[in-house]
Amino acid sequence: MSDFIYMTRERYLEIEKELNDLKVRGRKEIAQKIADARAHGDLSENAEYDAAKEEQGLLELKISKLESMLSRAKIIGTNNISTDEVRVLTKVKVKNLKTGKELTYHLVSPEEADFENGKLSVNSPIGRQLLGKKVGDTVKVTVPAGVIEFQVLEIMK
Fold first, then answer.
1. Against a cut of 0.90, is the pTM above it?
2. Which of 68, 74, 113, 134 is deepest in the core (most CB within 10 A)?
3. Domains by residue range for the chain, with CATH
4. What is the pLDDT of residue 26?
């Protein structure tokens, strides 16, 4: 699994901070829960112990996932991004040709996607269709509600 994960420096630092917190604080809290549960006696019928061990497994899985993300991260700066076509980290203003509504999306890696804040994954149906398009191009996107047609109005950093 050597696919790069493109992300901004800010997102990289956020993940790094979260990872460090999970390794230090998270592991310490889980170890304490396990110790507390062990103190209750027979481990074969100890639901608290089982729950704490399961929580530990989930924590370690999350730590592993974050470590993998950081090891495959490729930092992209917004300064050297061209706006001649839609790319990762560009913002694109589109017009829904059916409703006339204009929307602005910031195309980001799947790990940074946050639809409520206008950050759209390049792997989403809309993101995939917009990649490589230029101002004036139109795209048809199949979404659960049907087919939406957008026209690219502007590409920004």
1. no
2. 113
3. 5-75 (1.10.287.180), 91-156 (3.10.50.30)
4. 96
Report the pLDDT averaged over residues 40-62: 88
Q: Which two tokens stand for residue 39?
A: 């103190």
CB atoms within 10 A of CB 60: 15
Choice among 14-18, 32-36, 41-45, 71-75 with the minimum mean pLDDT: 41-45
**Separation between Cα atoms, residue 109 and residue 10, nearest integer Å:** 13
The DSSP secondary-structure symbol of 29 reads H
CB 95 within 8 A of CB 153: yes
Q: Are 105 and 92 in contact (CB under 8 A)?
A: yes
Instruction: Locate all alpha helices (DSSP H) within the chain, ordered by sequence.
Output: 9-21, 27-38, 47-72, 125-130
* C-alpha torsion 117→154→137→98, nearest 10: 60
